[in-house]
User: Which sequence fits this backbone?
């Protein structure tokens, strides 16, 4: 059987060489592999939920902010609302597509062992955005600008996302290492 036909989702049991029954694979490596597999998926789900919260927060800000009345020119209120709605949909699509790439890549790696680094690249980009947001918050906190409660909430959520993205890297690395050890052990037992 090739590696492409195996799914790690059904990897918890193996054929016993002395009978046709199944035996549970409860050795330390398989238990650790299942643990990091579930942690990787849960972390990716948390990153997606924080992306949904960012979209909701943007919608709330757009509905309650009075800054849009300052748009100058011969634009009707309907056209202003249409422009604002367009930019909110663009922002929401970008935020959710980045988070969906991470979610899909992490689930594929956790369930099927497909090692693609594209979702980790997107995670690095989001980590850099989070660091920029934190630096901008520090700049505003020690500068002349007044901070609002929304700014504090935003930086807390950005740092939470940063920690989740860091955990995603750690779990992906540990899962790859454990799966390599499992493959090496199976290869040595088969030889």
Assistant:
């Amino acid at each position: 059987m090739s590696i492409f036909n195996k799914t790690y989702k059904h990897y918890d049991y193996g054929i016993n060489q002395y009978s046709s029954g199944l035996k549970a694979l409860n050795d330390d490596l398989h238990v650790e592999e299942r643990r990091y597999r579930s942690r990787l998926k849960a972390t990716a789900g948390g990153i997606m939920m924080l992306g949904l919260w960012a979209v909701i927060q943007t919608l709330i800000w757009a509905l309650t902010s009075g800054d849009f009345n300052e748009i100058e020119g011969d634009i009707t209120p309907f056209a202003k609302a249409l422009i604002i709605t367009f930019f909110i949909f663009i922002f929401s699509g970008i935020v959710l597509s980045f988070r969906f790439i991470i979610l899909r890549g992490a689930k594929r790696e956790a369930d099927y062992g497909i090692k693609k680094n594209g979702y980790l690249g997107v995670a690095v980009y989001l980590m850099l955005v989070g660091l920029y947001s934190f630096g901008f918050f520090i700049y505003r906190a020690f500068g002349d600008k007044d901070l609002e409660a929304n700014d504090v909430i935003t930086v807390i959520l950005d740092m939470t996302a940063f920690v989740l993205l860091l955990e995603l890297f750690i779990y992906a690395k540990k899962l790859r290492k454990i799966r390599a050890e499992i493959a090496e052990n199976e290869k040595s037992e088969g030889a």
Remarks:
- The mean pLDDT is 83.
